[in-house]
Amino acid sequence: MTDAAETDERAEHIGPEDANAESGEAAEPTDDEGSAPTECPKTRHWSKRPGLWVAAALVAAVLGAGAFGFVKYQQVTDEVAQLRQNQADRDTVAQLAEDYAMKSLNYTFEDPDAFFDTVKDGVSPSLQDKYTNAGDLLKAVMLQAQVSSTGEVLAVDPVAQPDGSYQVVVSAHQTTRNLQNPTPQVSIILLRVTVHKAGDAWQVADIGPETGSKQPVAQQIPMLEPPAASGPTPGPTPAQPSPPR
User: Fold this and answer.
1) Number of domains in the chain
2) What are the start-end ranges of the H helices in 28-124?
3) Between the chain's N and C termini, which has fewer beta carbons within 10 Å?
4) Basic and acidic residues: which segments have biased composition (predicted)?
5) How confident is the chain (245 residues) per 10-residue block, as mean pLDDT?
6) Is residue 157 part of a domain?
7) Which domain holds residue 135?
8) pTM of the complete model beyond 0.70
9) Does 225 reside within a domain?
């Protein structure tokens, strides 16, 4: 048999399996083709929609700005509330000091008990004790000198102290008269009223002349010492007679 005949015979005996094998060998991928990276579906999803990244960034920025703005708003609100509270305390203290100064400036020897009851009402225990301890002496002075007084507050200046209390300087007109000077005497005085917090309320803790100011003696109420009693000057002691010789 010739070579051509053998070739034809082999071609006739090639089956489907041989054809598939040959096609598989031809379709086998190379090393380079098999090592190509495959793209993650999520990455491919976001890369195809860049607007989502922009939107997420904008949302984060808006949320951050909103949180910062809320914190600043709370700070400003707290500061405003504190300022309002401080002003309310200042107004309350000023009114309390003014009212108490009026109590201390208006009195009469005709009813000293009413005066002491008034100035001891609602004040601190220490100030109550001060008036109680000096009460008998002061009543005697008022009755002996027949002292009476009226007053009018001109201005108040409350100043907050580091301990939370207030020192209130009160300027006032005071009109006084007594047995020795029945004609009313008008003068301007300065008082210092101390106001502190007692629980949830403000309370007068002390009162006295403002530092550096000096009131006339007749206006110093309460007084600590009664005026010296006036009387005729005693005459010279008579000489003893000489003993007889």
Assistant:
1) 1
2) 31-34, 41-47, 51-105, 112-120
3) C
4) 7-16
5) 49 49 47 51 55 69 71 76 90 97 95 94 95 92 94 96 96 95 94 94 95 54 39 38 46
6) yes
7) 81-209
8) no
9) no
